[in-house]
Design a protein that fits this description.
This is Sigma54 specific transcriptional regulator. With about 650 residues, this protein is an alpha/beta fold. The protein contains 26 helices and 21 strands. The chain has a five-stranded antiparallel β-sheet, with helices on both faces. Strands 7-6-10-9-8 form a five-stranded antiparallel β-sheet. Strands 12-15-18-11-19 form a five-stranded parallel β-sheet. Bound molecules: adenosine-5'-triphosphate (ATP).
């Protein structure tokens, strides 16, 4: 009656105390959509393409919910019912029920092909209200908009995704006899639908995650299959959990029985691998013979650990395998190093380093030769790489250390040789560093150590931009930018006639002075923090803080070995540090001793070292018997314990 008055006489259902406000609002919307509750033939049908898209977009929901619904349908102990699954817009994705109840559906299906519980199609219904209000809804008889449902009771619950968004709804509709009893009788149906929808929500999430995992797994498999490296993943107990095809090939495994086997079966009991896995150290390019049966071959092995999100416990590890022969080829082909660093990698905020970087950036863009001047470990090679990467990143970067190369080989290394040029030479001949650096940069480190007799040859190559291999007859043009570096005073060497003045001016077209660390203010601390982080990242440890006493030492020490020395000191401290903070005592002894009394550094250092040495020797001699060791050393046992602790000598 109320519906007829609303529909035909425009009575406001919101004013009717028997109709709840959500239903009244929905009636108004339904009427505005033009749905006639008394005439089902006049209903609009959803568009076929919309339906197709709904089925396509909700494949996972259908796949998850339908088997679930089918499994639990027998528990629905009522006679006539229609069960419906919809998407978030009310489009019916699945329905089921007994013959009798389907009479209505079939009747509608004759007039329209597709079903939707959208208000614009069938007006107010339990599905759409559960979707709109995100709550379970039971709608009794006349509350349904269509009069055809006036003897139906419908229970519906929303299905949510992990973000709490509605992705669909599930409903059960039944015919009831006595309206007065209906709510009591059918209350359990609402409970059933609600728990079913919740179960589908959970199952949907599991299915979605499984699907994601499967896709990720397949993508990973695909990328691993084209990678040159072999990969083996282990769980926390060293059991193999995954092995890539390449790794199987490398290890000579032909079936997948490797899964769940202990890694030692294929990698043997090498101590480096064992220690790395036990202690959580990363391993880089360890050359090792590994293999199964008679398949022993040499590979470069690297190990990375897999940590939990908080980086506290290790969950497993990945072993990377690379063929040694391939590595050899790469090294031979490059004949030098690659430039990894760019200007952004040069850490430091001091005025001094910023000025050097800014000048280097300007000169990087010209092709002129550059001389980098700075103490050992100040970052000269870092600058050279950054300059190279800013000017010609695609060209080769070839580094030559003039001090470490044997004097008699420098010439052939730089200029190359033809086959048979001298005894012991490669039959096919070899290109020199100049040729290898063609189109890029040749970094001549420690140029002050270039033998004086070779300097004129180098000068000629720089002037003429062509090289002739030893034993060769023709010139090879080379387009190479030279960046030379020195920690020596070249002008002084010129005065001593150990360096040619003309070569100096050829190399030092532009000079960049790189300041020592002690002149870079707060940079030592900034760099120390950076090295703590990079070291911890490499070894998979949570980065400790740098304590106030250690910070004081770091900022006052004079760092004769500059950044390289600082980096080594920090690596040392990271390994020594047991807790969450690096203390001054974790730093290498020579640094702490200097800090304690700079003027007596030498004596203090040697006494401390002598004492530490003596204790270590006594402990070794007595096979760690502290009583005997203390006696030999002439000190009390308590003092010995204290010193063992101070010097961090492990018992
Ligand atoms: N500003 C910086 N930021 C980060 N790392 C740096 C910096 N300067 C130097 N390093 C690091 O310090 C180490 C020494 O640097 P590099 O080899 O470039 O010094 P160098 O002056 O060429 O030394 P040498 O004269 O002994 O050859 C390298 O590991 C380098 O990456």
């Amino acid at each position: 009656m109320a519906k007829r008055r609303f529909f035909e006489e425009d009575e406001d259902p919101r004013k009717n105390p028997d109709i709840c406000p959500e239903v009244a609002e929905s009636w108004i919307r339904s009427k505005n959509y033009g749905v006639n509750p008394f005439d089902i033939k006049s209903q609009k049908a959803p568009d076929e393409n919309v339906i197709k898209k709904a089925f396509h977009d909700n494949k996972l929901l259908i796949q998850t919910a339908v088997p679930f619904i089918k499994k639990f349908m027998p528990f629905l102990t009522i006679s006539d019912y229609i069960l419906g699954l919809t998407d978030r817009y009310g489009t019916v994705l699945y329905n089921a029920g007994n013959e009798n109840a389907f009479k209505y559906i079939n009747q509608r299906k004759r007039s329209i092909k597709f079903l939707s519980a959208g208000e614009e199609f069938i007006g107010t219904n339990a599905n759409i209200l559960s979707i709109i209000h995100k709550i379970p809804v039971q709608l009794i008889g006349p509350n349904n908009y269509l009069v055809i449902h006036e003897h139906h009771i419908a229970s519906a619950a929303p299905i949510l995704n992990s973000n709490g968004e509605v992705i669909g709804s599930l409903s059960v509709m039944q015919d009831y006899g006595d309206l007065n009893n209906s709510q009591k009788i059918y209350a359990h149906t609402l409970g059933w639908v609600t728990s079913m929808a919740e179960a589908i929500t959970k199952q949907y999430e599991i299915q979605r995650k499984t699907l994601q995992l499967e896709t990720a797994y397949k993508t990973l498999e695909k990328s691993l299959s084209v990678a040159e490296q072999g990969f083996v993943t282990l769980d926390g107990n060293g059991m193999i959990t995954h092995i890539s095809k390449k790794a199987m090939e490398m290890l000579g495994i032909t079936d997948t029985h490797a899964i769940n086997q202990h890694y030692t079966k294929y990698f043997g009991v090498d101590a480096s691998i064992r220690d790395a896995l036990l202690n959580g150290y990363n391993v880089h390019d360890l050359e090792l013979s590994v293999g199964y049966d008679s398949h022993d071959k040499k590979y470069l092995i690297s190990i990375d650990h897999i940590w939990d999100d908080k980086k506290v416990s290790r969950q497993g590890a990945v072993i990377y395998m690379t063929k040694v022969s391939r590595m050899d080829k790469i090294i031979a082909k490059r004949g030098g190093t690659k430039a990894y660093f760019a200007f952004d990698d040069i850490i430091g905020e001091s005025e001094e380093i910023r000025r050097a970087i800014s000048f280097a950036k300007q000169v990087a863009l010209t092709n002129t030769n550059i001389l980098l001047i700075g103490e050992s470990g100040t970052g000269k090679e870092l600058f050279a790489q950054a300059i190279h990467n800013s000017y010609c990143p695609d060209g080769p970067f070839v580094a030559v250390n003039c001090a470490s190369m044997p004097r008699n080989l420098i010439e052939s290394e730089l200029f190359g040789y033809e086959g048979g040029a001298f005894t012991g030479a490669d039959r096919k001949g070899r290109p020199g560093k100049f040729e290898l650096a063609n189109g890029g940069t040749l970094f001549l480190d420690e140029i002050g150590d270039m033998p004086i007799e070779l300097q004129p040859v180098l000068l000629r190559v720089l002037e003429e931009r062509q090289v002739m291999r030893i034993g060769g007859t023709k010139y090879i043009p080379v387009n190479v930018r030279i960046i030379a570096a020195t920690n020596k005073d070249l002008l002084e060497l010129i005065r001593k006639r150990q360096f040619r003045e003309d070569l100096y001016y050829r190399l030092a077209v532009l000079k960049i002075e790189i300041p020592p660390l002690r002149q870079r203010g707060n940079d030592a601390l900034i760099l120390a923090k950076y090295f703590v982080e990079t070291t911890c990242q490499k070894i998979g440890k949570k980065p400790p803080e740098i304590g106030a006493d250690a910070r004081k030492v770091i900022s006052t020490y004079h760092w004769p070995g500059n950044i390289r020395q600082l980096e080594n000191a920090i690596v040392h401290a990271v390994y020594m540090c047991n807790g969450k903070t690096i203390t001054a005592n974790d730093l290498p002894l020579e640094i702490i001793c200097e800090e304690k009394s700079p003027e007596n550094r030498r004596e203090l250092l040697s006494i401390a070292e002598l004492e530490k040495d003596a204790i270590i020797k006594a402990m070794r001699l007595t096979k760690k018997n502290t009583a005997k060791a203390a006696e030999i050393l002439g000190i009390g046992r308590t003092t010995l314990y204290k010193k063992l602790k101070d010097y961090k000598i492990e018992l």
